[in-house]
Give the backbone structure.
Amino acid sequence: MIAIVDYDAGNLKSVEKALRFLGAETCVTRDFGEIRSADALILPGVGAFGVAMDRLKALELDKAIREFVQEQSKPFLGICLGLQLLFFGSEESEGVEGLSLLPGEIVRIPEGEGRKVPHIGWNSLHFPKQGQLFAGLPAEPYVYFVHSYYLKAQDPAIVTAQTTYGPALDVSVEKGKLFACQFHPEKSGRVGLAILKNFLAMTGGNH
């Protein structure tokens, strides 16, 4: 069973639909027991950093996520805002502490000539190191983004994908069985489905 964290964020259903297309058994849940017993956990999300953290804390899901990541050796995937929430904090919501599961900050994409914020659309990925999510993918595959803020990771060793949109943006990370991507695999066609399939394969096929 793949559990999808339900904290009233957008984008839950499209993630669930993509996983079911791949044959995964899923549940959208905020139940601690279901989260604990899941084969893998996914934290999707679109919206504001501060609002999302407030909602996670109100439902005590911040505790459930930390417990899943820190105490269980099972795959976890953050998507879009779900990536950003894993870090210390965001310029979007000054003073709001993130889940702090990985070292780094979320900063606003700088506007520049020919560059609009939010960044909406398809960009190619390049891989500073081989990440498990991207096994078997072609070089520089295109994926779909919708975001105004991006990750500046403190530890380059965790960064498995970047894209160029003005500066080089860190857009996917991996540490142990903790994975996250800024782009939307569920909206990225065949490439996105291949990424999700790679994630599902890490559950040992018990989904």
Summary: The domain at 2-201 is CATH 3.40.50.880 (Rossmann fold). The chain has one domain: 2-201. The longest strand covers residues 168-175. Residues 36 and 183 are 26 Å apart (CA to CA).
